[in-house]
Amino acid sequence: MATRATLPQVSGRTFITDGGMETDLKFHGGLELPHFASFVLLEDEPGRDALRNYFRPYIAIARERDVGIVLDTPTWRANPDWGAKLGYSADELESVNRRGVTLLEEVRAEAGDEPTLLISGCIGPRGDGYRADALMTAEEAERYHAPQIETFAETSADLVTALTMTYAHEAAGIARAAVTHGMPVVISFTIETDGRLPSGQSLGDAIEQVELATDRAPAYFMVNCAHPTHMAPAFADGGSWLDRVRGLRANASAKSHAELDEWNPSELADQYRDLAATLRNVTVVGGCCGTDQRHIAAIAAAWPR
């Protein structure tokens, strides 16, 4: 069994994740997600049922492929600025973050002992995730994100994952807050079509900056919300930092963030496999915008273990 001290994906076991939660729920499920916030579904039983039904196919894929699975709480937007836009107080945000973990506890209990299921407290950027805006110093970011991380630390969450980070200072602040509250932390950067972060920094420089600012605090790094063909240039220069990249969660489309559309699952899986030779330590594969269980099934089948 996983504990916060021993994450099995760090030891080399393959794990999958889910796909693009918000895009799937909104465009395939027809659900209203104001400001792309899936945590609003935690407010009533039909919403919670929609989330349970969303997660179940991914658990079935993990069981079929005999791999583990990391599932994120639906709390990417559950931080102070986005919560305020939706009318949530600090106490109400704390409650939805806790309920996000409770929902995944129920999903894990239903799944039983197999597959190994890790609960990740999901943290999103203060800004919109596609631009390096609402810029903070690492110290400001630590203070801003600490309440959400502290809440997750008081639950059964196995780790916290910061998805769609657009610049290094915010990522470093999140990592520091996680250390303070005793939580394993994963940092996932997004990149644009040129292979660079929205801030303009290279992926390697951003990872190295976070490593230096946090004494290598992250359990590992990921890249999400970009197509594999945009990830490849980011990895091309190489360097020791590549060994710290353990996860990929790609978009279904090769379009820019402003032009996302659907992409063939088998072709996406082939492009994942093309990256495997460069990214020898990747053990966590999943999806982001535009992906659903079809894409994750294809990726899980194609990824070399």
List keywords for this structure.
single chain; 305 residues; alpha/beta; TIM Barrel; 8-stranded parallel barrel; 8 strands; 42% helix
Quantity of strands, as a count = 8
The CATH superfamily label reads Homocysteine-binding-like domain
Reading the helices and strands in chain order gives EHHEHHEHEHEHEHEHEH
Rg result: 17 Å
Give the overall shape, derived from the CA principal axes: globular
Main sheet characteristics: 8 strands, parallel, barrel
Give the end-to-end Cα distance, rounded to a whole number of Å: 20 Å
How would you portray this structure in words?
By secondary structure, the chain is α/β, with parallel strands linked by helices. The chain has one domain (13-302): Alpha-Beta Barrel (TIM Barrel), CATH 3.20.20. The chain contains 10 helices and 8 strands. It has an 8-stranded parallel barrel with strand order 1-2-3-4-5-6-7-8, surrounded by 5 helices. Helix 8 links the parallel strand 6 (220-224) and strand 7. Helix 4 packs across helix 5. The radius of gyration is 17 Å and the shape is globular. Mean pLDDT is 94; it is low at 257-261.
List the helices and strands and how they pair.
Blueprint: E1 15-16, H1 21-28, H2 45-65, E2 68-72, H3 80-85, H4 90-111, E3 117-123, H5 138-153, E4 159-165, H6 168-180, E5 185-189, H7 203-214, E6 220-224, H8 228-236, E7 245-250, H9 265-276, E8 284-287, H10 293-302
Helix pairs in contact: 2-4, 2-10, 4-5, 5-6, 6-7, 9-10
